[in-house]
Design brief:
The complex is a heterodimer of chains A (114) and B (114). Chain A is mostly beta strands and 114 residues long. Chain A has strands spanning 4-7, 10-13, 19-25, 31-38, 42-49, 56-57, 65-67, 73-78, 87-94, 104-105, 109-113. The model of chain A has no long low-confidence stretch (mean pLDDT 93). Helices cover 0% and strands 54% of the residues of chain B. Chain B is built from no helices and twelve strands. In chain B, strand 7 (60-61) and strand 8 form a beta hairpin. The chains are: A mainly beta (114), B mainly beta (114).
Chain lengths: 114, 114
């Protein structure tokens, strides 16, 4: 009964370092998303995927890359971290884009870039 | 682009009382979905209620109900018989039919006073 699992839950990076956030879902969902949450700004879409092997840019994609090599996993990469990327990152998934399905969210990753 | 506005950064309610959270959105579409998500201190995003734009009847889930005014592009959430466990950030969200980009408002922090 895991749903959407994000790892790690917390991370501190130095400016210029790289890292990968992992999102895994066990619900056989086709669609997966990466959001960032900043105070006073709600959640903003970074990248998303509509199926294995596909990715697309969202509202704030700069500085991030993603990959979806397996249907159940969606990776978010930061190649050269910047303090502006300090945020809480959420992964979400949904079955399909029709029918008004809500998203299932992971518990988030708090990333601090110093 | 669709935008979602939550004009109340903070709200408070007495336990057992009723509170209404406001949300307005901007869209030129006729088919879309609206959602309210709850984010307690645990950070987990929880779907509270959803509304299909083509339905005139307001959605209800136990103590949670919405007032959907399509012409006014308004989607407020009413919480009846407020409980201490309702204390959280609440996010209003919009998703266009057949679209992969769910847009969120900035959130309303709800405090429940015993």
């Amino acid at each position: 009964n895991a749903g959407v699992t994000q790892t790690p839950k917390f991370r501190v990076l130095k400016t210029g370092q790289s890292m990968t956030l992992l999102c895994a879902q066990d619900m056989n969902h086709e669609y997966m998303y990466w959001y960032r949450q900043d105070p006073g700004m709600g959640l903003r879409l970074i990248h998303y995927s509509v199926g294995e092997g596909t990715t697309a840019k969202g509202e704030v994609p700069d500085g991030y890359n993603v990959s979806r090599l397996k249907k159940q996993n969606f990776l978010l990469g930061l190649e050269s971290a910047a303090p502006s990327q300090t945020s809480v990152y959420f992964c979400a998934s949904t079955l399909q884009d029709r029918g008004g399905y809500g998203y299932t969210f992971g518990s988030g990753t708090r990333l601090t870039v110093v | 682009a669709q935008t979602v506005t939550q004009s109340q950064p903070e709200m408070s309610v007495q336990e057992a009382e009723t509170v209404t959270l406001s949300c307005t959105y901007d869209t030129s579409e006729s088919d879309y979905y609206l959602f309210w998500y709850k984010q307690p201190p645990s950070r987990q995003m929880i779907l509270v209620i959803r509304q299909e734009a083509y339905k005139q009847q307001n959605a209800t889930e136990n103590r949670f109900s919405v007032n959907f005014q399509k012409a006014a592009k308004s989607f407020s959430l009413k919480i009846s018989d407020s409980q201490l466990g309702d204390a959280a950030m609440y996010f209003c969200a919009y998703r266009r039919y057949n679209n992969n980009d769910m847009r969120f408002g900035a959130g309303t922090r709800l405090t429940v006073k015993p």
